[in-house]
Amino acid sequence: MWFVYIVKCSDNTLYTGISTNVEKRIHAHNTSKCGAKYTKSRRPVKLMYVDEYCTRSDASKREYSIKQLSRIEKYKLIKCYGK
Q: What is the three-class DSSP state of 57?
């Protein structure tokens, strides 16, 4: 399974990514020297949203569509996820 996730960075920006292991990826964002360049200077990050997909292709398409959303639209998505 593939997962699309959104994290909130320490500067209140949002980062969207995909992974097969979200827990491991969040740990990497927060501690690893090999984490995403964007999140390295914005630690710690907090997981806000996760969605599951059967294929990498589907997850990548969803990641792209989320990245096209405005900040307000992303927060609406996060709010719906929390319910």
A: helix
- Which range of residues forms the domain containing residue 46? 2-81
Domain tally, the chain: 1
Q: What is the CA radius of gyration of the chain?
A: 12
Average pLDDT, the chain: 94
pLDDT (tens digit per residue) in 37-66: 899 999 999 999 999 999 999 999 999 999
Give the integer Cα–Cα distance in Å for 27 and 32. Answer: 7
DSSP string, 7-50: EE-TTS-EEEEEES-HHHHHHHHHH-TTS-HHHHTT---EEEEE
